[in-house]
Amino acid sequence: MTRTQLQAARDGTITSAMERIAHRENCDPEFVRDQVADGQAVIPANVHHDALDPMIIGREFSTKVNANIGNSETTSDLEEELEKLHTAVHHGADTVMDLGTGSDLDRIREANVAHSPVPIGTVPLYEAVKRAGSPEDLTTDVLLEVIEKQAEQGIDYMTIHAGILLEHLALTEDRKTGIVSRGGSIMAKWMEAHGEQNPLFQVYDEICEIFAEHDVTFSLGDSLRPGCIADACDDAQYAELDTLGELTRIGWDHGVQVMVEGPGHVPMDRIAENVERQQEVCDGAPFYVLGPLVTDIAPGYDHITSAIGAAMAAQEGAAMLCYVTPKEHLGLPEKQDVRDGLAAYRIAAHAGDVANGMPGARDWDDALSEARYAFDWTEQFELALDPERARSFHDQTLPGDNYKEARFCSMCGVEFCSMRIDQDAREASDDGELKELKRETDLESSSAAEVNRPPVGTHDTSAVSPVADLDGVDLEREYPKADD
């Protein structure tokens, strides 16, 4: 019988996944095992996901970033979804959630699992509604059938909206934006139509049994997350959080790994409160936050409004950040939106790790700063979070190879480059001899975890199915090779 990572950890077993994670996080395997055993970290690793390069989510490890992709009834097909998956992994996504609600869901889901070295998450409620025809027609049988099927397909973690209860609905009546979670609104509509308790709550034990069989990780959905800063931290949000704490402990009792989802839209002065409260109510289970968005005024720029909150949440102890793209609230993200959202969130995650003093996290910053002061443009590009973007921006105005050794860029020009002026002044004060510029940071020997060292998006892809093997899809793409 399959043992989950949690059950193995409790038994004192260090699994091969834990060994790989210890290598990637640059820590002791026993520390990985201990954190998983205590429920303070999760390893989303469905036993059927053969292409997976194991990773860990927990506040004592490097902050992780999730990218949402998925089709809708009006846009995107299998080829586009695989393109988004590749873009997400290439630009540093630690996990990817397939939130598709359109057609061909099974084929897209199976392709994502086969071609992804990172964990894949889903919201099975979406497919269940499509199968039932409407939220009101959902049944517990349909919900369990869909959940079990997706578990068998290799989905590593699932958002389960079991925390929104019938008694919570009245608490949302005075909100400015009501219930903004897709799953939350679906469950609320079902409960209002039937006058009964949330069916996912009713069959939660059965879901736990399915998850334990396939080692699927719970991502307990925040169905009542605030959809604007005016609704943040209200009675509805916190009532559901209390239920999520209870569900966390039930999941653990079944030997199932659990992380908890969080808001949403939260003003900056209340982000710490949200993280602290979740950690207390849910006994330290990893907190997985969407944003939070710290202001509501910037449609088209919500990757920025949310990355501000995400960096603050990471500093406070959030374990994983769900990216927001510039298209949030406006449309389905495309490839470029995925790239922009991931850049914003990789910055937020890394900034949080630097602020928290994670081992070696600042070494990347120091190495790039040293290259910048030395006018080593090639090294700057290679160390950049997005090397292609950095090189492209530089070369838009100074494209020639000779400018790769120039002591200036087009922002200040040769006469007003502050670092050149500073270096010239130092040379003059040292009797005409400039002391050798310090290049003392060695990233090869850094104690930083993989995600805090360049390049991003490097995973072990040896078990990933070639995209060319998928019938009807012609994508000439390869993931970067893992650097062990």
N-to-C terminal Cα separation, in Å? 32 Å
Strand order of the largest sheet: 3-4-5-6-7-8-9-10
Percent helix range: 40-55%
Briefly note the structural class of the backbone.
alpha/beta
* Helix-strand string: HHHEEEHEHEHHEHHHEHEHEHEHHHHHH
Rounded to the nearest angstrom, the radius of gyration is: 23 Å
Number of strands: 10
Spell out the blueprint of helices and strands.
Layout: H1 5-10, H2 16-25, H3 29-37, E1 41-42, E2 57-58, E3 64-69, H4 78-90, E4 95-98, H5 105-114, E5 120-122, H6 124-132, H7 140-153, E6 157-160, H8 182-194, H9 199-202, H10 204-214, E7 217-220, H11 235-253, E8 258-262, H12 271-281, E9 287-290, H13 302-316, E10 320-322, H14 335-355, H15 363-373, H16 377-383, H17 387-395, H18 413-416, H19 418-429
Parallel strand pairs: 3-4, 3-10, 4-5, 5-6, 6-7, 7-8, 8-9, 9-10
Antiparallel strand pairs: 1-2
Helix pairs in contact: 2-3, 4-5, 4-14, 6-7, 7-10, 12-13, 13-14, 15-16, 16-17
Q: Your description of this structure?
A:
It is built from 19 helices and 10 strands. 49% of the residues are buried. The strands form 2 sheets. Strands 3-4-5-6-7-8-9-10 form an 8-stranded parallel barrel, surrounded by 6 helices. A two-stranded antiparallel ribbon has the order 1-2. Helix 12 (271-281) links the parallel strand 8 and strand 9 (287-290). It is an alpha/beta fold and 484 residues long. Pathway: Cofactor biosynthesis; thiamine diphosphate biosynthesis. Belongs to the ThiC family. It is an enzyme of class 4 (lyase). It comes from Natronoglomus mannanivorans.
